[in-house]
Amino acid sequence: MKKILLIGTGGTIASEMTDDGLAPKLDSTQLLRYIPRVSELCAVDCIQLMSVDSTNMSPSGWLSIARCVETHYDAYDGFVISHGTDTMAYTAAALSYLIRNSQKPVVLTGAQKPISMDVTDSKQNLSDAFTYACDERASGVSIVFNGSVILGTRAKKVRSKSFSAFASINFPELAVLQDGRVLHYIDLGYRERAAFSHALNDSVGLVKLIPGTDAGMLNYALDRFDAVIIESFGVGGLPEGNDGCFRAAIERGIKAGKLIMITTQVQNEGSNLTVYQVGHALKQQNIIEAFDMTTEAAVAKLMWIMGETRDPDRVRERFYTPVSHDILYTESE
After folding, report:
1. Widest CA span of the chain, in angstroms?
2. Residue 333: is its pLDDT beyond 50?
3. Which residues contact 87 (CB under 8 A, 6 or more apart)?
4. Is 12 part of the annotated catalytic residue set?
5. H or E segment at 85?
6. E strand or H helix that includes residue 90
7. pLDDT, tens only, 22-34
8. Pairing of strands 140-145, 105-109
9. Of the candidates 296, 274, 291, which has an alpha carbon nearest to the alpha carbon of residue 283?
10. Percentage of the chain surpassing pLDDT 90?
11. Buried (b) or exposed (e) across 262-276, using 16+ Cβ within 10 A?
12. Alpha-carbon distance 140 to 99, whole Å?
């Protein structure tokens, strides 16, 4: 029988109603009591690592989860992490960099409704997470939700209320769960020993463009953070403005040693700065383009890389080196 560690972090799945709305109250042992059939599937130990609404999850929380998995890695066959849905995709992406090439499954799950409610997705999601964690072909970091298994670097929350809350962006689902069975589509095929990282540089800012955005926002972000990600429109580009202020901000930031990345607000199909004039000029500057990566993965990957180096050439090289299928094509191709 497989041995699985359940790591509790809070979230809606563990919440109860208070005078101020839902708040995490149940620990991982209490969650497990709602799905007694899991005892027929595997042996489970529980750790309550934290109890937070995922809105309050942070890079330090990601590091705590990764350390917990590393500490107990040799003692268990797999790991299930109960987590709030709002930032689960960020956590899944971060863990994909902090825990690489894991032959053992590290499975995140949660719910749109608390487990104590009569109508809830919690029990099925948690049960499915254990089923996948016990599967012989399961490996790496993933999200199990609403019957889908989504690679950690490709997950995004796309619905705020529906049970089908997550989608796999620019990459197929790894598997689906039906009637307690795992139907595999993709085998990650990890054969190396798991590699763990222990540092993140969380000085990463995000500027989301809207029509008429003032370049002062970009200048502020470049003053405040070591790296700035710009969520542009369509396949990517920057407003030219009457005085070229965005381009001037980019040039100033690069001279100051800041790392600048361009991505797109459009969730599917990715960026390509070579298509339009508003993007083409950026290719001549020392910026990074996210291409088909999710914003969640781009943020986490920058934090991970900058936790080890700030050298621009080294950052670029490592960013364009795929980790857990996080990027499918790059400017060098």
Report:
1. 68
2. no
3. 54, 55, 57
4. yes
5. none
6. helix 88-98
7. 999 999 999 999 9
8. parallel
9. 274
10. 86
11. bbbeeeeebbbbeee
12. 8
* Per-residue pLDDT reduced to its tens digit, 127-174: 999 999 999 999 999 999 999 999 999 999 999 999 999 999 999 999
Of 191 and 18, the structure prediction assigns the larger pLDDT to: 18
Contact of 152 with 140, CB cutoff 8 Å: yes
B/e letters for 102-137, b = 16+ CB within 10 Å, e = fewer, are bbbbbbbbbbbbbbbeeebbbbbbbbbbbbbbbbee
Structure tokens at 291: 């291409």
Nearest to 142 by CA among 187, 179, 112: 187
- How many residues are present in the chain? 333
Please work out, in degrees rounded to the nearest 5, the angle formed at the alpha carbon of residue 238 by the alpha carbons of 236 and 241. Answer: 155
Report which of 285, 135, 299 is spatially closest to residue 228, judged by C-alpha positions. 299
Nearest Cα residue to 228 out of 218, 238, 237, 236: 218
Helix (H, G, I), strand (E, B) or coil at 250: helix
- CA atoms of 51 and 32, how far apart (whole Å): 15
Catalytic residue among 9, 12, 87, 109: 12
pTM above 0.90, yes or no: yes
Of 259, 262, 254, the closest CA to residue 226 belongs to 259
Q: Which of 79-93, 191-205, 244-258, 268-282 has the highest mean pLDDT?
A: 79-93
CB distance 132 to 110 below 8 Å: no
Task: Express each pLDDT in 300-314 by its tens digit.
Answer: 999 999 999 999 889
3-state helix, strand, coil in the chain (%, to 5): 30, 25, 45
